[in-house]
Design a protein that fits this description.
alpha/beta; D-Maltodextrin-Binding Protein, domain 2; five-stranded mixed β-sheet; four-stranded mixed β-sheet; 13 strands; disordered N terminus
Length: 443
Amino acid sequence: MRPLIRTVSSRGSRRRFRAVAAIAIAASLLAASACGGDSGGGANADGEVTLRFNWWGSDTRHKITQEVIDSFQKEHPKIKIKGEYGEWSGYWDKLATTVAANDAPDIIQMDEKYLREYADRGALLDLKKADGLSTDKFEPDTLGAGEFDGGLYGLNAGINAFTIVANPAVFKAAGVPMPDDKTWTWDQYTQIAAQITTKLNGKGWGTGAYGTNDASLNMWARQHGQSLFTKDGKLGVTPEGVTEFYTNLLKMRDAKATPTAEFTSQDMNAPLDQGGMATGKLAMSYSWSNQLNALSKASGQQLKLLRLPSVSGKATENGAYYKGSMFWSISSRSKHPKEAAEFVNYLANSTAAGNLLLAERGVPPNTEIRAEVAPKLKPADAASHAFIQEIVKELGEPSPPPPVGGGQVEKIIQRYTTEVLFGRQKPDQAAKAFIDEVNGEIK
């Protein structure tokens, strides 16, 4: 995953590059404020305006999103939407370049990792001040995911939860019953996964390894009274907490619950359709709930979402919360903020848009739209929808978004997870190095 500023070979160089780019962005913002902004097209003589809208995603997302654009334009003939899309791998580099060049799109599909990165540099409009954007039908917790420092900089585009995704076919092949995910502990999870590995006899493993993304560390931290980041933009995990996180990972590996270090290092960077879940090598793994449909399609199996295990065995203490799968943001330099807000309002609150988008970007956070689309969902999306509804009384407060520089954490944690699994660093060494490096990034 890419940060707002391109990464380069050394950490020191990366920081210098980020500082130079941040100055460039700040300068462009100052220039924009002096001349009224420079994003989006000007209005024609007949009052027609053109807005640029960018997003990342699959071909399916591109097609559906264009259908939504077409639907909006039929209802709003004076507003033209120019779509700009691509794959995740190049999305953030391109966005950083356009923002620094004072050429940002009007409407931006934003990710939590970089929401604060852009907002803190003044690149995003406070949606609380957006004319014509309604959030009345949103559940309060779903708004909190894009809210900080008194402003709303990203409107939740879909509800997500971090889960265990399980393959019932692999459980059946191993002769192991599906677990009770409302009561299981980490020890029970490890025992079940180890049992599956043994029964598969070299043909797979009970579960993938955690520590391959920042979400797994955040969820572990939440179960232990911490959080990956704090509301004031600091690192919220302790060396002792990260040490325990890695110690438990080794415990699972030594019990044969998880794959080899070699498999894990390859799997963490594999495309979704080539990963351990898609190829039937894993009975369980860690996933965001909105990926259930894509994983089920890739594996050829109807996969199932399970709650994360907890220390106590209580579902209310497993750290779950509603996360925005992605967000709608508006450039602070848009020449047409009113029209941009009108389009975002359509994306979030229109029945017509909801019936096209369904759950492609996650379960709709607008409760009325959610009820409207529920009967039309495909089996996997319907299962995600039901899961999101089922866990509502078990949820905690949303985690704070990463501070500036926090978008680097996933790559950092992947590197130290690899170091621990290959035995090159002990858990306490990796924990200290991880914390020192992340603190260096966010400073």
